[in-house]
Write a structure and sequence with these properties.
The complex is a heterodimer of chains A (150) and B (678). Chain A is 77% helix and 0% strand. Chain A has 150 residues and is mainly alpha-helical. Chain A has a single domain, classed as Up-down Bundle (Four Helix Bundle (Hemerythrin (Met), subunit A)). By secondary structure, chain B is mostly helical. In chain B, β4, α3 and β5 form a beta-alpha-beta unit. Classes of the chains: A mainly alpha (150), B mainly alpha (678). At the A-B interface, α2, α3 and α4 of A face α1 of B.
């Protein structure tokens, strides 16, 4: 019984993540992969994503410090970053990545810097939210199969 | 396999398990750990057996270690250590497994690249379960096609070639090359798919214009009078069961062109070889008989045979153009021929016998039916070397279509031994459907299951061996040590695969071999030059492919006499492989590339060219074996001029310099080499 409020809260959190556009369908795909054999699959994947992408963010920051920018390199990093982000359904982060790449391709250094800042912001927001979400999820205990927000 | 984690023991079942697709053994390669783990989970959920690895090199190692351990591979496009497309090529060449590419990139050109490189599917990230659930279809499809290939004795491309050849026959000059190419390409494409789906038997049966058959034809024509010779009457006179009016008609057309060339070529220094561009090798056919003997004579054949052939050919055809073809060329031709003899299976016969007509025999019999037209398989020494616009639709198996100097040679040489020395030919569209080739193309196994390779292999070896029989290793030409063959990794692809593969170990060996070979053998040189030239011009030089192939052959054919085979087979193979493997784009191209690349490193000369070309060959995945475009050899340099006096090689070398880029379309049956990026 005490779980119910928590579960309800968890559900609300989850729904808002979707409604606010932080997550998309792909996240649900991950949730559907979660089963008894891998009860924390989604959390593990997300954790892996943040670990790996942090490295990419760092690389990109370093690349953005050098002048002039190596757009190819930046684009390469961002391509990887985008791929990962897409895989977990990080919708906003993915959008910012796309924008960044466009600036890269057109050689717009300022645009790149701006887009990168924006991307980091979204990335940070997502991270915080998901961390909170999973923390609650753990407390709530194993959930049933995720239901689609819509 | 450090980073790979196998999910279970490999099921080495050859046949489809009962619970198929459950248990499908998938290897997934992606440098992104997040994606990798998601894919793994998804695939496991589909009841597949999954092995993941994050590096392409590791993946290759795993695959090599477990040749039959996997059914399908899924790979990301962008990876740090190796380009996904390169991995795709490697796998196609070495293991002939279906490969699915995936990427977050959904740009059309990238997807197209996947197609051309032979990927059986392309998934856009994020990959969903639904997409993965059906990947088993690619496994089945590939197997099915592979069986088909087997049934067709690896002559899948033959059907294509035949058709192509007929088309080739249509074109008579380089001017039409463009059209021809495009149409051929289309045709090839069609053929390709046809081949895959239908057995070649469904295609029009190829007529192998053997020496005897051609002689009959010529006799009939002479009897009727060249002006009055109409296909219908010729057919009646010939009275050959199974021969259709169309066969005769296209052959006649080629023959006419050949005659015209002969008469018109006299001014050029073209030796008889050159003239007949389309070469109907009428004269050659007769000559071939002689040549064969010469060839058979052993080693010396090449030179002598060539001379003989030429003489015969010349004498026969128009007596106008003396067959200046330098003996040297002839030699080369023969050497090439051997490889050309694509005798897939029939080659063996050739090989064993030093019969004079080895070439011919091999050719007609084994020659793929394609050879229908023209090119009588006369050992195809289509010495159309200097022929401009030679359309030697040499179905010759021993296609020594020395169309090297021919411009616009459209040697649709379905020769197995396609030595379509169309090296110098501009726009040589050597549709060398050389069966022997194929093997090289095999790397492209993306499509065809090993079959092509296997098929090709024997062919090549046979063809080569066959042709080589006469040419003893003694000949300088055949310097190529069969080592190559041994060097080559035996992955299933006779040569092609290894050499082509970047990082193929064999590469090194080949190079050396080639280099040495080439140097030593005069004959080779020419062939290589040719190839080089070809390669240069045409990124897709089939020649290259053949080259690659030859290597394979040498392996197989152990008896390959030598080096020539190698080079030739390489050339041939390259061509074939590309074509053959429909879907194995890479194979051919890759193979040839490998071969050449090997050469490059060591040999500054020809090999380099070849390899370079190979690499640069924008072969699309559908490597069509139809060796079509042969590098354009500068007509200026055409052997024609030099044939009489110089070695073919030197001629070739000259040509190399002057060779104009030829648009070679590698239209290997079914395999289009594209971007064989080495």
């Amino acid at each position: 019984m005490e779980r119910n409020p928590m579960r309800r809260q968890l559900a609300i959190m989850r729904k808002s993540l979707f409604d606010q556009g932080h997550l998309d369908e792909q996240f649900i795909e991950l949730e559907e992969l979660q089963d008894d054999a891998n009860p924390n699959f989604v959390e593990e994947v997300v954790a892996l994503y943040f670990r790996d992408s942090a490295r990419l963010i760092l690389n990109m920051e370093q690349a953005l410090e050098g002048k002039p920018f190596d757009f190819n390199k930046l684009d390469g990093y961002m391509h990887q970053f985008k791929g990962s982000s897409t895989s977990i359904g990080a919708k906003k982060v993915k959008a910012e990545s796309t924008l960044f790449r466009e600036y890269c391709r057109s050689g717009n250094a300022e645009g790149c810097v701006r887009a990168f800042q924006q991307l980091k912001k979204e990335y940070g927001t997502l991270r915080k939210k998901l961390e909170a979400y999973f923390q609650l999820a753990r407390q709530t205990g194993p959930m049933e199969t995720a239901s689609r927000p819509k | 396999m450090s980073s790979a984690s196998s999910s279970a023991a490999w099921k080495s079942a050859d046949s489809v398990p009962d619970q198929f697709p459950a248990g499908l053994r998938v290897l997934v390669v992606d440098d992104d750990p997040t994606c990798l783990i998601i894919l793994e989970k998804m695939l496991r959920t589909c009841s597949y057996e999954v092995t993941k690895c994050n590096r392409a090199e590791t993946a290759l190692a795993i695959l090599r270690e477990n040749k039959n351990g996997f059914d399908i591979v899924i790979s990301d496009v962008h990876m740090p250590d190796m380009d996904g497309f390169k991995l795709l090529e490697h796998i196609g060449l070495e293991m002939d497994l279906p490969v699915i590419m995936m990427s977050a990139d959904d740009g059309k050109h990238v997807v197209m690249k996947g197609v051309t490189h032979g990927a059986c599917d392309y998934l856009i990230k994020p990959v969903r379960m639904e997409a993965l659930k059906n990947i088993w279809q690619h496994v089945i499809r590939k197997r099915k096609n592979g069986w088909k290939d087997l049934e067709q004795s690896g002559s899948v491309e033959e059907g294509d070639r035949q058709q192509k050849q007929s088309e080739d026959a249509e074109y008579s000059s380089s001017a039409n090359e463009g059209n021809w190419k495009s149409s051929k390409k289309r045709k090839d494409d069609e053929d390709e798919t046809e081949d895959r789906d239908d057995t070649s038997t469904l295609k029009k049966p190829r007529v192998v214009w053997s020496v005897e058959l051609h002689q009959q034809f010529v006799a009939a024509v002479n009897q009727l009078g060249i002006d009055k010779a109409v296909p219908k009457k010729i057919l009646e006179l010939m009275n050959v069961p199974g021969l259709t009016r169309e066969n005769v008609a296209s052959h006649l057309q080629k023959y006419r062109l050949y005659l015209r060339r002969l008469s018109g070529v006299s001014p050029h220094a073209n030796n008889s070889f050159m003239n007949p561009q389309e070469e109907t090798f009428g004269p050659l056919s007769s000559v071939s008989g002689l040549d064969l003997q010469a060839l058979a004579a052993g080693g010396q054949l090449p030179a002598q045979c060539l001379a003989t052939l030429q003489a015969a050919a010349l004498g026969r055809s128009t007596a106008k153009s003396s067959i200046p073809m330098p003996l040297v060329d002839q030699r080369n031709i023969f050497s090439f021929e051997n490889p050309k003899l694509r005798f897939g299976e029939g080659q063996q016969q050739l090989m064993n016998t030093n019969k004079p007509i080895n070439l011919l025999h091999g050719i007609p019999t084994t020659m793929e039916p394609k050879q229908l037209t023209t090119s009588q398989s006369i050992g195809n020494i289509n010495m159309q070397v200097a022929s401009h616009g030679v359309q030697s639709s040499q179905n010759n198996s021993a296609l020594i279509n020395m169309q090297v100097a021919s411009h616009g040679v459209q040697s649709s040489q379905n020769n197995s031994a396609l030595i379509n020395m169309q090296v110098a030919s501009h726009s040589v569209q050597s549709n060398q459907n050389n069966s022997a080739l194929m093997q090289m193309g095999q790397p492209q196994f993306a499509r065809a299951p090993r079959l092509p390779l296997s098929v090709g292999q024997p062919i090549i070896s046979n063809g080569i061996a066959a042709s080589y029989n006469p040419v003893p290793q003694s000949s300088s030409m055949l310097n190529f040590p069969m080592n190559h063959a041994s060097e080559l990794p035996g992955n299933g692809f006779p040569l092609g695969s290894t050499p082509g593969m970047s990082g193929c170990t064999s590469k090194g060996t080949f190079q050396e071999d080639f280099n040495s070979e080439i140097k030593g053998s005069v004959g080779f040189m020419s062939s290589y030059d040719i190839f080089n030239n070809l390669n240069q011009h045409k990124p897709q030089n089939w020649e290259l492919q053949n080259v690659g192939m030859t290597f394979d052959d040498s392996r197989h054919s152990n008896s390959l006499q030598g080096n020539l085979d190698l080079s030739q087979s390489v050339l041939v193979q390259q061509g074939f492989s590309s074509g053959r493997m429909s879907g194995q784009n890479r194979s051919a191209a890759v193979v040839s590339k490998a071969m050449f690349s090997a050469g490059d490193s060591t040999e500054p000369g020809n090999l380099l060219n070849v390899s370079q070309h190979l690499n640069s060959l924008p072969v699309d995945n559908t490597i069509r074996v139809k060796t079509e475009s042969v590098a354009d050899v500068n007509s200026d340099n055409l052997f024609i001029d030099h044939f009489g006096q110089e070695d073919l090689m030197s001629a070739l070398l000259k040509q190399q310099q002057g060779i104009a880029p030829a648009e070679n379309e590698f239209d290997f049956d079914g395999y289009s080499l594209d971007n064989i990026q080495v």
